[in-house]
Every structure is written in C-alpha cells, then in structure tokens.
Amino acid sequence: MSSSPRRYHITTFGCQMNKADSERMAGILDNMGFKWVEDPLAADLVVYNTCTIRDNAEQKVYSYLGRQAKRKQEKPDLTLVVAGCVAQQEGEALMRRVPELDLVMGPQHANRLQDLLDDVFAGNQVVATEPIHIIEDITKPRRDSRVTAWVNVIYGCNERCSYCVVPNVRGIEQSRTPEAIRAEMEELGRQGYKEVTLLGQNIDAYGRDLPGTKEDGRHLYNFTDLLYFVHDVPGIERIRFATSHPRYFTERLIRACRDLPKVCEHFHIPFQSGDNDVLKAMSRGYTQEKYRRIIDKIRELMPDAAISADAIVGFPGETEEQFENTLKLVDDIGFDQLNTAAYSPRPGTPAALWENQLSEEVKSDRLQRLNHLVGVRAAERSQRYGGRIEEVLVEDLNPKDPTQVMGRTRSNRLTFFTGDLDRLKGQLVKVKITEVRAFSLTGEPLEVAQLVTA
Ligand code: SAH
Ligand code: SF4
Ligand code: F3S
C-alpha cells in the first residue's frame, strides 16, 4: 500500500437492507483509514454492494464490473470487492467470471469486512459466502443522512415465496436483541438523528428466534413488544418500520402504532397479487380476503394512515382474469403508493422452473395497466392533504429546485417548500399544503420564526 490514504467508493444497488449494510461497511473502511471518494473511477478500493431481486438488477453489476476490471489492468493495486446478494448467489462463479476480483462477500459478512480485507491485503483472493451468525458491528456506520437512519432489527427471511431469491441470499432469520437495538437508537438520538426506520425483510418475524422467548409454542417477544420497548428513545421523534407480512400482521401492532406517538401513521404491507390461486402458487400463506381484512382494520383504527405495498404482475400462469383481480384489489383499496414489478425468474427459486412462464409483452402490458391505475388512485388519495397542516421532517434540498427543501410527512408523503436547508435540516416544520400531486406535495411553512430560536 502507498503512504497517502487510500480512497474507497461504494456503489449500492437494491433495498434498504443493502443501504444499511453499505453504511456499516463504509464505517469499517473509515475506521481502517480509507477516505471516501465520490467517483468510483478515482477510487483505490471499490465495493459494489449488489442486488439480485430481478434479473435487470443483477445484470447492472456486470457492466459496472467490466469497466473496473479493465481499469485494474492499468492499476494493479486497485482492490475490487463485490458484496451483497449477487455475491452470495454467484460465489466462486463470480470469481471465475471476473478473475480481477479480490473479494466476493455475502450480506451476512458485511460486518467482517476488515478481517476479509486483511486476508486480501495478505495476497489472497477471498470468497466469503458461508452462512454465519451475524456479529454485532462494533464500528460506527458512516450514515448517508444526518437526519434519518436505518436500524436493522432482524436479518434474513424464513419464508419461501416461490418467486423470491431473498432467503437464498440473506439466510435464515436472525433477530438482534432488544437491548442492542435500543442502544443503537439511543446513540442516534444523542447524535441528533430525528427519525429511525426499523428494518427486516419480514419484520413481523422479529423475536421468534431469540432464545427464551418461546413458551408453550407462543412467542413471548415480538415486533410489537419491541416497539413498546424503543418508542421513547430521547431525541428520536419518528419511528418507521418495514416490511410487514400479511401472514403475521396483527391488530395489536395497529393499536401500538395508534397509541405510540412517535410511531408514524404509515404501513408498508406487500400483497403481491389480488388473486387467491396466484397467492397460493406464490406460497404467500394468506388470501386476498385476509389482506382486505387487515386494511379494513387499519382504516377502522387509524382512518388517515397511509398504506403502501408491493405487487408482482405476470407471475407464471397468471391469467387475464387473475391479473384483473389484482387491478380490482388496487382499485378497491386505494394505495398511497405501490411498488410494482413484472415477474422475473430467479435462479434457485421454484417458480423459475415452471413451464407456464408468460411472455415479456404480456408482462409489460400488465405492468403498464397496473401503474396507470396506481397513479390515478394515488392522486385521489393525495387530495386529502390539500389545505391541511402537516408536520414535515426536513431532510435535504429539492433536487429539482434548490430554493426548496424536501422532507416527508409522518405518512411518508414527499413534501417540498421554500426554505433554507442550512437552517431547516433536521427540523420538524409545520407546513400548510398548497399543491397536491400523486406522490408528492408542496406547501408553505408555518412557525419558522420559532424554529430559529428553538
Ligand atoms: N420481504 C418483502 C419483500 C422483499 S423483496 C415481502 O415479503 O414483501 C421486494 C419486492 O420485490 C417484493 O415485495 C416483490 O414485490 C418483488 N420481487 C421479489 N422477487 C421478485 C421476482 N422474482 N420478480 C419480480 N419481483 C419480485
Ligand atoms: Fe422474499 Fe417472501 Fe421473504 Fe419477502 S417474505 S423476502 S418475498 S421470501
Ligand atoms: Fe436486492 Fe438483496 Fe435487497 S436481492 S432487494 S438487495 S435483499
């Protein structure tokens, strides 16, 4: 290694878990004396933290890697790392495909980055994909935001949805202890963070693997208990969580969200399909009627709560009628936001081997029709904010208009208003909503004078 500090870059693909993993890996690299650089082509150490949820996500990384592999021919001391879900899925095969790689490491190994790099700097090519018990990270993550933060509560997933690669690449469920989660949140509160998002692929599974929490087959400590345990952490004003699974979602959780003032009025509960036969083929373990009952209960107890979800169109064998059941569910419920995707066959998943795959034309046609409906219904849902006063936590500039700042309502609607970021960042501002769009709002701030002295 040269004597000037080596520079690193991390490019992150995929979901919130990967973002959280990247922040922890960046913390480890900072701790090792590396310096962050924005441009991946100027870095001495490059980490691609990858996603393989759909084929297009996986393919992206190969094109990025090609460029870095070429760069390494001129710069042999370049260290190339592939982390995350493609690394876990491909393992050794990735090393053979791109022999310039120094380190291929699965998501469970993120906290071990320093040990793995020590091995690399000793001259080895390293593949770390064996399942392990995830160790608590002792270095501080390098977080992208100073206002909002991710906190993992449970790693992995024990479900076996027939389309999904996550259990293969993230391993079995591993809950962190309530004490470790609360301690991380307390530290965030001391550092001035205002909002925490608790993360798990299936957050309702939280606790079921913790020792001593099961008695007579009943889980004695679950995610709702965790919310009660962490809800009053000083400094943290907002608590969010994702992702909820309809199979395990409880009324007690809704009541906790209603009763705990810091827990935000937003639920993210993917339904995937509005058709019972498709749900069965997906091995989701619930019916569309059960899903509707959950939403009814939320609307009864928290009428104004925002509801978002994920859905897949063009699952193998999905008929036009079955797809229309998804449209019907979306039309009936009226989501504030819906992440939609065309089904993508994934290696190592059951549905990828079925013969009743649909054509790309059918899938993209259905995706367009669903997206159109989502936009229409979300625009209607947005209407309720017009003229209202909403609390917005200011995070950043509006990337499209630097005279405006950007934040979110408690219900997670993106909101813009005119203001000075230096003064407002991290502040909770009361904003009168003057313009509504399908997925965002614009308003005028109230109470700014008080904020200055606050
Ligand atoms: N744990 C969450 C979702 C994790 S993956 C849950 O159970 O809901 C995020 C989203 O990607 C999923 O909700 C699903 O809508 C989508 N997805 C997963 N596998 C997919 C595939 N093979 N093709 C298309 N979309 C997929
Ligand atoms: Fe994938 Fe299903 Fe687990 Fe979600 S619950 S991560 S969709 S296997
Ligand atoms: Fe992608 Fe892995 Fe997340 S596959 S969606 S980064 S769990």
Notes on the protein architecture:
- The protein has helices at 16-31, 55-74, 84-90, 92-97, 113-121, 166-170, 178-190, 223-230, 251-259, 276-281, 288-301, 320-333, 360-382, 421-424, 448-453, and strands spanning 7-12, 35-36, 45-50, 79-83, 103-105, 126-128, 148-152, 154-155, 174-175, 195-199, 214-215, 218-219, 238-242, 266-268, 306-313, 337-342, 389-398, 401-409, 414-418, 428-436, 440-445.
- The chain folds into three domains: 7-128, Rossmann fold (3-Layer(aba) Sandwich), CATH 3.40.50; 148-384, Alpha-Beta Horseshoe (pyruvate-formate lyase- activating enzyme); 386-448, OB fold (Dihydrolipoamide Acetyltransferase, E2P) (Beta Barrel), CATH 2.40.50.
- The longest helix is centred in the last third of the chain and has 23 residues, at 360-382.
- The radius of gyration is 23 Å and the shape is globular.
- It has 454 residues and is α/β, with parallel strands linked by helices.
- The chain has a six-stranded parallel beta sheet with strand order 2-1-3-4-5-6, sandwiched between helices. A five-stranded mixed barrel has the order 17-18-19-21-20.
- Helices cover 35% and strands 23% of the residues.
- α5 links the parallel β5 and β6.
- The structure holds S-adenosyl-L-homocysteine (SAH), iron/sulfur cluster and FE3-S4 cluster (F3S).
- Iron/sulfur cluster is lined by residues 157, 159, 161, 164, 166-167, 201-202, 245.
